[in-house]
């Protein structure tokens, strides 16, 4: 359990980000420490070389020739610092400073450092050595650089400790800050769990960071759409079962009537059968419409269609069954890519409505053509019209305008929602307006992009 929690903690953004930042911080610090070491070595080396040059300069200026080397040789280097000077004259005479007899033999067996010319490591100390010819004498200096090296060591230690402290404290601060930052993600996850179990609420939209903000916005949007879909589906099932129940109850009522009374009153049979026939037809249409509503656009086969021709055929068929005259003006050929039955169903439903909601002997006008960047299909009737406040709602599933004029007319409230659904699939818009002097005009507006 404990190891599990540990592993879980290791997988958190807080832990992982801290580890990455700390490693980066450590690597950067290490790099700069190395640079610091190299620069310090270079600086110390230059200083030693300068120091040696100064000694040579001093020797050159006040040359020992006046009083002779033995009298002055110890003046140039500090015996306390264990530095040494050796002079070899042209005649072979050698003079040593106080420490020279000890220092030079020790250096003879010392180690030379590559790249740092003149630096020799004796067993105990670090020396800088240089030889120069001054007025015919060969002068060799060995400067003890132990003090400088110790200083450099000290500085390096201090700097390393400070850097280590910076990495440790920096990591803790990063852990703390990242923890605060990832708190937003943690509380987002908690909110999602709460939403999941409570089936309500939405995510808090933080102001920053913008990435989390946009995740929350998208999540809320998705949630809203999902809830709307669920609500729509629930409403659809409730509405559909209500629509199916009404004619079914009527049919069962008439069946019972025939069972109970047909023996004594056989005259009820024809009327009841006619009713059953009418209601079962209604059921058939309704169930077909419901199936159409649920058909997925993907399952349909698209092809290049002469849509004008299709519309003409539907108008011709409808003219035979409707009491109204149908006048159609169709611009041909207008080839569009789509599904044949989609266009047929759209025109058919609009024409059927025009026929249902308009008096006999009136005229229905159909127009299909293009204007500017659009292709239009309009169906106009001289019927009862649609009140302005209902115009938006008639495209909803199962919605019917319930007034004294239309309540007598058979319908299920699905026809226009089907037209709208098909129009949506073609990114077309459908609108309704009042016809003059009376009636309604339905207009489906396709963009010209659909033209082939
Ligand atoms: P249905 O006609 O089966 O009731 P629709 O979805 O086709 O269902 O139409 C929804 C409602 O819109 C109808 O009930 C009717 O009130 C109104 N409507 C549709 N077309 C017309 C029209 N051409 N004239 C007047 N009202 C109409």
UniProtKB/TrEMBL annotation:
One of its GO terms (cellular component) is plasma membrane. This is histidine kinase. It catalyses: ATP + protein L-histidine = ADP + protein N-phospho-L-histidine. GO terms for molecular function: phosphorelay sensor kinase activity. It is found in: Membrane. SMART domains: HATPase_c (SM00387), HisKA (SM00388). It comes from Candidatus Enterococcus testudinis. PANTHER family: SENSOR HISTIDINE KINASE TRCS, SENSOR HISTIDINE KINASE YKOH. Its EC number is 2.7.13.3. It holds the Pfam family HisKA. Residues 239-450 form the Histidine kinase domain. Keywords: Kinase, Membrane, Phosphoprotein, Transferase, Transmembrane, Transmembrane helix, Two-component regulatory system. The chain crosses the membrane at residues 21-45, 155-176. It comes from the Bacteria.
